[in-house]
């Protein structure tokens, strides 16, 4: 196995992890920004007010996009297992 193959697998892994984390992180960012804006307008400074809506929104996003996330991970894992013979004969 050469360094190009290792770098390619690492890059694919980073890309898949970024794709899988994006819906959750973007949702948490958007809800957190909205709650912060609401808190600054109303001047209510309660810590739990920002945590509970973010947790609920992330839970909803995981319910909605969970099937897609699992299928992406399964296809990535299958692609890695399919590459094993070509990686072993290259060495």
UniProtKB/TrEMBL annotation:
It is found in: Cell membrane; Bacterial flagellum basal body. The chain crosses the membrane at residues 20-39, 51-70. It is a multi-pass membrane protein. It comes from the Bacteria. GO terms for cellular component: bacterial-type flagellum basal body; plasma membrane. GO terms for biological process: bacterial-type flagellum assembly; protein secretion. Pfam families: Bac_export_3 (PF01313). Signal peptide: none annotated. Its main location: membrane. Keywords: Bacterial flagellum, Cell membrane, Cell projection, Cilium, Flagellum, Membrane, Transmembrane, Transmembrane helix. The keyword Transmembrane helix applies. PANTHER family: FLAGELLAR BIOSYNTHETIC PROTEIN FLIQ. Belongs to the FliQ/MopD/SpaQ family. Role in flagellar biosynthesis. This is Flagellar biosynthetic protein FliQ. It comes from Arthrobacter crusticola. The lineage of its organism: Bacteria, Bacillati, Actinomycetota, Actinomycetes, Micrococcales.
């Amino acid at each position: 196995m050469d360094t190009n193959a290792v770098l390619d697998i690492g890059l694919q892994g980073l890309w898949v992890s970024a794709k899988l984390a994006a819906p959750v992180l973007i949702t948490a960012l958007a809800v957190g920004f909205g709650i912060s804006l609401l808190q600054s307008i109303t001047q209510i400074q309660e810590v739990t007010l920002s945590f509970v809506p973010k947790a609920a929104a992330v839970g909803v996003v995981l319910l909605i996009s969970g099937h897609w996330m699992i299928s992406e991970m399964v296809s990535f894992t299958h692609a890695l297992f399919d590459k094993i013979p070509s990686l072993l004969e290259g060495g």
